[in-house]
Write a structure and sequence with these properties.
This protein is 43% helix and 18% strand. It contains eleven helices and eleven strands. Bound molecules: 6-O-phosphono-beta-D-fructofuranose (F6P).
Length: 320
């Protein structure tokens, strides 16, 4: 059984990361294990920016978006020298295991660190993109999807008032999950995702036909991995002759107070991560499958690409 562990957040922040860190910390303290918080992602590990946490250090954070520990994308950690320095800094403090909350790239760094040094590492999927293989859920994806549909509700009002087409670009990196679930729940007529080819000419023809039949407005959601609203919007305007506007939500969709789902799921994942790392387990990621917490091999999680549920893509077409 380990006596001292560390926890950190890395990569793009996501709502619910605080709940995960809180759960890791309080579970470990409950087991009589020391917990260190690493600030600023892998930067903090390299720059020795870490502190031993008490229960009160994770108070008043569960309702906050972002991550109170701070986060970063760290280039230095992608080198073997950087990782060895990070490892040494942990060992110097008696830290015997690490919990990393982050997306694809952060978990990949964690996997390499564990392979090179033997340091026990447990990962938690923290990203709004919901693109970590082996888990149907990543911390923050629910809040981000809710933020997007809130924006869509507002865009619908103005699109309808002006009889316009509005093209909304959302995040997701190479994944269309956010666009797909927000598009379905926000009632978008068109959803463009990187996982599925689309024919813009054909879409424009359909849009024109729909307007001729009396349609008042159209909402299109574009995943950033499928294209830019600033490229697609003008093409639609030109080909349809319909007044078209674009909107890019950007980092607004990364922030905000986490939803109930993100708070509860992150808390459940955090508890599992703490108990696992304390008991000496390593190289696993905890995620969800059919609503249950499952452990996924860390190597598999970072070396496989998650696909978009074909049932969602089918449903989007039926409901549009
Ligand atoms: O991975 C999360 C994410 O928000 C992606 O959806 C987006 O492509 C990227 O991070 C943006 O990164 P940054 O905040 O570094 O601009």
């Amino acid at each position: 059984m380990l006596k001292s562990i560390a926890v950190m957040t890395s990569g793009g922040d996501s709502p619910g990361m605080n709940a995960a860190v809180r759960a890791v910390t309080r579970t470990a303290l409950h087991q009589g294990v020391k917990v260190w918080g690493i600030r600023g992602g892998y930067h903090g590990m390299l720059d020795e920016d870490m502190f031993e946490m008490q229960s009160k250090d994770v108070g008043d954070i569960i309702q906050r978006g972002g991550t109170f520990l701070g986060t970063a994308r760290c280039r230095r950690f992608t080198t073997p020298e950087g990782r060895m320095l990070g490892y040494k800094n942990l060992v110097d403090r008696g830290i015997q295991g690490l919990v990393v909350v982050g997306g694809d790239g952060s978990l990949r760094g964690a996997s390499t660190l564990s392979q090179e040094t033997g340091l026990p590492i447990v990962g938690l999927p923290g990203t709004i993109d919901n693109d970590v293989w082996g888990s149907e859920y990543t911390i923050g994806c629910d809040t981000a999807a809710n933020t997007i549909i809130d924006a869509m509700n507002k865009l619908r009002d103005t699109a309808s008032a002006h009889r316009r087409i509005i093209v909304l670009e959302v995040m997701g990196r190479n994944s269309g999950w956010l666009a797909m679930v927000a598009g379905i729940s926000g009632g978008a007529e068109y959803i463009l995702v990187p996982e599925e080819p689309f024919d813009l000419e054909e879409i424009c023809e359909n849009m024109k036909a729909e307007y001729e039949k009396g349609k008042r407005y159209i909402l299109m959601v574009v995943a950033e991995g499928a294209g830019k609203a600033s490229d697609i919007g003008p093409i639609i305007a030109e080909k349809t002759g319909i007044d078209t506007r674009i909107s890019k939500l950007g980092h607004i969709q990364r922030g905000g107070s986490p939803s109930v789902i993100d708070r509860v799921n992150a808390s459940r994942l955090g508890e599992h991560a703490a108990l696992a790392i304390i008991s000496g387990l390593s190289d696993i990621v905890f995620g969800f499958n059919r609503g249950h917490v499952v452990s996924i091999n860390l190597h598999d999680a970072v070396n496989n690409k998650k696909t978009l549920d074909p049932q969602l893509m089918r449903l989007a077409k039926v409901l549009a």
